[in-house]
Amino acid sequence: MINPELSRIVATLEELPFPTRFAVEVCSDCNLECIMCHHPNMRRPKGRMPFELWKICADEIAALSPETQCWFSFIGDPFLEPDRLLQMIQYGKRAGLRSLNVNTNGMLVRPELSDRILDSGVDLIVFGIDGFYRETYEKIRVKGNRDLLYANVMHLLVERQKRHYGPEIQVQFIEMAENENERDTFVQYWLERGATIKLRNKLSWGGQFETSLEIPKQERIPCPWATTMMHVYWDGRIPRCPGDTEGEEGVGNAWDEPLSILWRRLGQYRKIHLEQRFEELPDRCRDCKDWMTGAAERINLVSVNDN
Question: At what angle do helices 51-64 and 82-95 cross, to 10 degrees?
Fold first, then answer.
């Protein structure tokens, strides 16, 4: 019998006229070398997205699908370019985008940036943490400093709470063998401090990493990532697959063609997924487990009290 969570997800998947999630690579560099991330081995050129390219994307999304979630994240930490990131968020909000979100490892979210971040119009900030104790955190988030990160997150939480408005702040815990004994401690610690906890399974990033997930192939569902999301690299290239961190299988460039046309071009792959003709998918998809990951679980004081 199909996994109940996957069954719930597959019921929501359908052909979309435009992506519901759009990931923007503000820059392709990173200050950490995390063990579950491709970035330490990345070969493609590094750079930062020109502001004009973001304007082109933001204007089209605002015109066609303002509810699309725009995520400033991919293979790189956006706070390596704080001025560019905040400028992009502010422009997106003025253009009419309704969901502007940031994924960051948090090391560069220094207290002196807090007012600018909270005033930018950002709707959600997700801090990738993945460990409670210093030894665990710094084993997973190589080159990170656990105490500095925790101080950065706490400062932003306190400043956000003073205002009584502003972005939701989430702390993410990717469940893996290295941190499996710290989950409950992590959840309790951050619940007491007013953050939302985001728990999710480890991604294989298109088969590049081993995961503990094992679901029979006969229970395979269309990939939620491939059927709902679109990514743009810093240089405008659009990958076929969200797990294509090297840009080996592109479908065009946002400098040259509208996102709507590029999304339609990706439709041939979505059709194969949605019709469950998985044997016809490109090689990258055949051993990928990312369709197994399911939805992230989110815990906050409201959800705890409701239970």
Answer: 30
- Cα 71 from Cα 271, distance rounded (Å): 24
DSSP-derived 3-state class of residue 101 = strand
CB of 24 closer than 8 Å to CB of 232: yes
298: helix, coil or strand? strand
- Residues, the chain: 307
Distance of CA 102 to the CA centre of its chain: 8
DSSP assignment of 25-89 equals -SBS--S---TT-SGGG--SPP-B--HHHHHHHHHHHHHH-TTSEEEE-BSB-GGGSHHHHHHHH
List the one residue out of 95, 147, 141 whose CA is nearest residue 121: 95
**CB 108: neighbour CB atoms within 10 A?**
16
Tokens coding 143? 């080159």
* Residue 125 neighbours by CB under 8 Å, 6+ apart: 101, 102, 104, 109, 117, 156, 167, 168, 169, 170
Q: Check the CA dihedral 119-164-77-54 and report its sign.
A: negative
| Span 18-36, average pLDDT | 96
Residue 56, number of CB atoms within 10 A of its CB: 16
Look at residues 69, 137, 52 and name the one whose alpha carbon lies nearest to residue 103: 69
Percent of the chain's residues with pLDDT above 70:
95
Query: How many contiguous H segments (helices) and E segments (strands) does the chain have?
Result: 12, 10
CB 100 within 8 A of CB 93: yes
CB atoms within 10 A of CB 187: 19
Q: Which residues contact 207 (CB under 8 A, 6 or more apart)?
A: 243, 284, 287, 288, 289
pLDDT band at 126 (very low <50, low <70, confident <90, very high): very high
